[in-house]
Amino acid sequence: MGEFFYQIDLAVFYFINHTLSNTLFDKFFVFITDVKNWFITYLILYLILIIKGGKRGRISSIILILLVITSDQLSSFYLKNLFARIRPCNVLNDVNLLVGCTNSFSFPSSHAVNNFAVALFFSKLFPKYKWILISVASLIALSRPYVGVHYPSDILGGAIIGIILGILFSYPVKFIEKYLEGKNKKGNNYEN
User: Fold this and answer.
1) Are 166 and 119 in contact (CB under 8 A)?
2) How far apart, in whole angstroms, are the C-alpha atoms of residue 77 and residue 65?
């Protein structure tokens, strides 16, 4: 049974990595898969969250740091070492490899875990941005098999883990927000 699913995973990997391959996608996916290319965007969005996001934005900015640390550490250090799956670029001879291939393990994709965690976190808190957040997370996740460093199942597993984490971490924001609102109402009642 495991071999059957691996063959499906491999077929989808080759479809993404070989069949979809073209010059335009090569440039696009290599650019979006590199976290360094996102740093300025992340910084600007983080500042907007603090300045323009109101109380929910400021609370979210603190919980977001905890979410990213948790999702990254969970995927990069605990789960990857637990599953110890070798990356396709270290196993398959004919990978269309567009970025460096590391010796770290493959499952789950930390890119997928982190980006889906953040996308779902903000989708629950700021629902009008849901589709853009999920679209960006999906493109970044798709970039990983496209550049040759992850199997599709690494992405799917990472996305599921990220979705769960993002939803779970949205609850404390809502709880703190309600707590602070209740505290303000009590304070206002004492003044009257």
Assistant:
1) yes
2) 18
